[in-house]
Amino acid sequence: MWRKTATLLSRTARSWKRLHTAANRRLDHAAATATAPSKPRAPTLAALRNSATPRHHPLFLQVPRRSMFIQTSITPNPNSVKFLPGTVVMEDERTCDFPTFRAASRSPLARHLFQVDGVVGVMYGPDFITVSKREDVDWSVLRPEIFSVIMDFFTSGEALFPADGDSADDAAAAGGRSDTEILDTDPEHVAMIKELLETRIKPAVAEDGGSILYCGFEEETGTVLLEMQGACSSCSSSSVTLKNGVENMMRHYIPEVKAVREVKSPERQRLEAESAKMLADLEQRMHS
């Protein structure tokens, strides 16, 4: 009897040992599964495309303040940078250029930016602000001040173009007829020039923080007159852009176009003349 009992106990012990071993193995497997890093998924085509082609240039800075992020994007012009506040700047995909401090009086944001020492030009785009500087000033000095001006303006709720006083007409002008609006009096080739500018050329130039203003067409010579704005206005490669890019495209699609020439619009000439006179008067007062 004792022998049978011992045998039974021995078998029971072996069974418990097997059960205990199996339970430990299951626990070890569960722990390993929970703690082991999961195998990374293969990247999708969309993910590879997004990582390979960022929306902005690789060199950018994000600055948070009051739930607002401002990105900066480099342009082909080393003296111009795009600032993207993450909100709409100009409605209806329009642009507005401020080549001088005198012109900046139309908008409080542009006026405040011109008050930053070293800023010589401001341009509004649909979702960006291009700021141009003097060549002898470093961006590391200007960026913090420009960030502060842009952040303070957009968090204040102030209007980009105040609807009071002399600024009312300027606001209406900024939102009024576009330079590429096709008129009933436009010949077919002029309408095609405006359409090509609006749909193909301006969006490409805006990526570099600039804009192109249509100023007219010389029927006798077949020359399209354009004004470069923003980052393009003081860029050393703007002439290459006009000849190799804009002119070739227009000549390809529109036989009437023979050449493209950069000009300054009458409005810009007037503003530059007023600004030069104001600076001359200021210097004269300082030396008198």
UniProtKB/TrEMBL annotation:
Molecular function, one GO term: iron ion binding
GO cellular component: mitochondrion
One GO biological process term: iron-sulfur cluster assembly
Entry-linked InterPro entries: FSCA_dom_sf, Nfu/NifU_N, Nfu/NifU_N_sf, NFU1-like, NIF_FeS_clus_asmbl_NifU_C
Residue ranges of every copy of the Scaffold protein Nfu/NifU N-terminal domain listed in the record: 70-157
Family: Belongs to the NifU family.
The protein's name: Scaffold protein Nfu/NifU N-terminal domain-containing protein
Organism (species): Cyanidium caldarium (Red alga)
